[in-house]
Amino acid sequence: MSFLWPTMLLLLATIPLGVLLYRQREGRRRQRMADLGRLRVGSSGTVALGRATVGRRIPAVLMLAGLTALVLALARPQSVVSTPRFEGTVILSFDVSGSMA
User: Fold this and answer.
1) Is the model's pTM score more than 0.70?
2) Where are the strands (E) in 25-90, listed by range?
């Protein structure tokens, strides 16, 4: 298999950058939630935040898979497929005699 535009595969290098940005954003979100929890509970204790559920990350994983497929499609993969060649003769005839009127 080959690619018509292999330079488009360089865009695959930007996908880990997106993952890093997502993780940074999630870290900031968790910090804000922890700060908000401390304000509600008071200074005596802090709210223990649980792990992020799998359900929360499903959209991000699907987006990552979709972007990867999109970048691969933009590179236009090509493959040579050999198919058997069948030859035949087609005859098209019209009967315009008086009996067929």
Assistant:
1) no
2) 77-78
